[in-house]
Design a protein that fits this description.
5-stranded mixed sheet; about 40% helix; elongated
């Protein structure tokens, strides 16, 4: 080939290469122009999507306090550890140290992640200490992330657990006050935009989208000092008498406030592992029982309201037994002729039965209905039941008799406390409140004041010398109350050797301030009468409560007599 031909071929190849380079350069320039100019926003958004995130700012749940500001439930900051399983395993990172921080093994952790490869979010552990979360972050394992959250803590533990309740792992109310006031306590979570590194850790806060709003503080009527006292004495009684359980409720008469509420058996809201759901129930509002002789004051009140009876009206209860159809009603002893006042003091079933027969079912039903039996107390507590007060139109003669002394009707401890507060408050029905009352509620009159006063006076004799409830006496104070001992029921009817022991009353009787209900379920240590089992608990708790609340004594003569007796015995 000639030199000219070779030179011509070289030129062609040179230009061909140059053209290729030019085309490539133009393609690159076009791509750069497209990416940097025409598609800039799209790429920026895509980049931000991989580095800028919108995350939730958890809201602080409102604190629950007692009436004096002492904390009953608080939220403490903790952290959660979560993962993108596929990303973690694809990184090939050593998971041994991470597994140790999460209290598991490398093998278990990998097995956990492998089973969830199709998920982009999986909690490895919730409610870890902030220091643990910081150590997890320091490992810088791709796909492992931490987040801020709160854990609920209950300073009183099992002492107030049935009243306060608890939240779940997401800080949502599940039982008790936590559930009843969940909307009040729960805050509103916020959101913020953050910059994350390739390990998922937040490296910079960019902006707040919405501020989190903390929940409101809730102040309960409960007094922590009274609660400790109630819990201790009820637990001691249940253990000493080998009982199945127990309930105690202390109300402020003039406000309707729940000052103390205790239930046995207890549970610890800070550690609920292995506890069944039945332990969580606040039995004061969810469990019903036949009130027995604690209902007799209301039968007598209905009698006085009818105008057919006066406190001195005499009733023949001899010979201590009364046949009603094919049933037989009896008293412990043959009391002979009793005044209607002594019917309460001696707790005569025959006396209340004869009173009920003379009144008829409608009068008795109306009185029971007016003081709150057969309906909820409308206090807002979740799970409250109505009890049973059947329509009087369907009552037989036997039904009328048994209702008069507390059988054939079922009540809650809350209902019984409210009904006794009517007698204590001179015939006024106050609404029950779990919250501290700052403005006195408007009561409703359901019983004439004079009738309430007379029944109050009669019930003082129950706790006085010779009364069935003398063990409920409180030194330096007049106490009005009534014992109750009820046979438990089963599928086969009433059981002969299983009981519910009760005492219901209030003090100081001359100027009532506190109502206290004590219920001990199925005592099994030999003693079972309400006067033996429940009355002593009433005495101890009421005595402590009156002193803690600085309520002055109303029985100074009794104190002087006791002092004289003490001096003479030295």
């Amino acid at each position: 080939m000639s030199g000219r031909a070779q030179e011509s071929g070289y030129v062609v190849r040179k230009w061909f290469v140059l053209v290729l380079f030019a085309i490539a350069a133009m393609a690159v320039a076009s791509r750069v122009f497209y990416l940097q100019i025409l598609n800039k926003d799209f790429l920026k958004n895509e980049g931000d999507a991989r580095a800028v995130r919108s995350v939730t700012i958890p809201a602080y749940r409102g604190m629950i306090t007692d009436r004096n500001g002492e904390p009953l439930a608080v939220s403490t900051p903790v952290a959660s550890v979560w993962a993108v399983p596929g990303k973690v395993l694809a990184s090939g990172a050593d998971l041994g140290e991470l597994a140790g921080l999460l209290d598991t093994s490398d093998e278990q952790l990998r097995k956990l992640l492998s089973a969830r490869l199709d998920r982009n979010f999986f909690y490895l552990k919730r409610h870890v200490p902030p220091d643990t979360a910081r150590r997890v972050q320091a490992l810088k394992i791709p796909g492992i992330n931490t987040g801020k959250e709160y854990k609920r803590y209950y300073p009183l533990g099992e002492v107030a657990s049935h009243l306060v309740g608890f939240t779940n792992i997401d800080d949502e109310g599940q039982e008790g006050i936590e559930l009843a006031f969940d909307d009040w306590l729960r805050g509103d979570p916020g959101r913020k935009r953050v910059l994350k590194d390739l390990y998922g850790s937040i490296v910079k806060d960019i902006e707040n989208i919405r501020q989190s709003v903390p929940g409101e503080t809730l102040t309960l009527a409960l007094d922590q000092r009274l609660q400790y006292l109630a819990y201790r004495e009820l637990k001691t009684a249940v253990l000493d008498h080998k009982a199945r359980g127990g309930m105690l409720l202390l109300l402020g008469i003039r406000t309707g406030e729940v000052l103390a509420l205790a239930v046995q058996p207890p549970f610890n809201p800070n550690n609920r592992a292995g506890i069944s759901g039945s332990h969580y129930r606040n039995r004061v509002v969810t469990d019903v029982f036949e009130p027995g002789s604690t209902m007799k004051p209301f039968t007598v009140a209905a009698a006085l309201m009818s105008g057919m009876y006066q406190p001195e009206t005499m009733i023949d209860t001899a010979p201590g037994r009364l046949s009603v159809g094919r049933y037989s009603i009896s008293d412990i002893n043959n009391y002979g002729t009793l005044s209607i006042s002594d019917v309460i003091r001696k707790s005569s079933n025959i006396g209340t039965t004869k009173v009920a027969f003379s009144l008829g079912p409608e009068r008795l039903w109306k009185l029971h209905d007016s003081v709150g039996f057969g309906t909820t107390t409308m206090n807002g507590y979740p799970g409250e039941v109505t009890g049973t007060l059947t329509d009087f139109a369907g009552w037989s003669k036997v039904d009328l008799a048994t209702v008069s002394y507390g059988y054939g009707i079922s009540v809650t401890a809350m209902q019984l406390a409210q009904a006794y507060s009517v007698i204590a408050a001179g015939g006024l029905l106050y609404p029950i409140s779990f919250q501290k009352v700052n403005v006195l509620p408007e009561p409703r009159r359901v019983m004439p004041e004079m009738v309430a006063f007379e029944v109050n006076r009669m019930m003082r004799s129950v706790v006085g010398t010779g009364g069935s409830g003398w063990r409920a006496a409180v030194e330096g104070y007049h106490v009005a109350g009534k014992t109750g001992t009820v046979h438990k029921t089963s599928d086969s009817g009433y059981e002969e050797d299983r009981y519910v022991s009760l005492f219901a009353g209030f003090a100081p009787a001359t100027d009532p301030r506190l109502v206290l209900i004590v219920v001990v379920d199925d005592p099994g240590a030999g003693k079972y009468f309400g006067s033996q089992v429940a009355a002593p608990v009433f005495s101890t708790v009421m005595q402590g409560a009156l002193r803690i609340m600085n309520i002055p004594p109303d029985n100074l003569i009794g104190l002087e007599q006791q002092a004289l007796l003490a001096d003479s015995s030295r």
